[in-house]
Amino acid sequence: MTCKQRLAYRLGVGDVYKALADPTRRAILDELQDRSGQTLFELRVRLTGKGFTSTRQAISQHLAVLSEAGLVVVRREGRYMFIDLDTSPLRQIYERWRVGTCESDT
What we know:
alpha+beta, WH_DNA-bd_sf, transcription regulation, three-stranded antiparallel sheet, transcription, globular, ArsR-like_HTH, single chain
């Protein structure tokens, strides 16, 4: 198996594409890019200000999909939940189609 093929089957790259397919999830990622470490309440307020009318439960469901894809990390501190952006799955996709060779392919 080549480096690209191994990457295609590692860490569910398809989950990243599924997560990015929804406009609300992309808006969540945009908000977290602007300011990572937001609470669910803060995120909902910011999304509402941009025209998204998702409920708290709907945003939680979107965050679950993003978390499964590895694009967000949810951490708890006391009774608060903070959401952080993790772009490493996107870097893995970029590396898959980057021009060049993989060390083990040579």
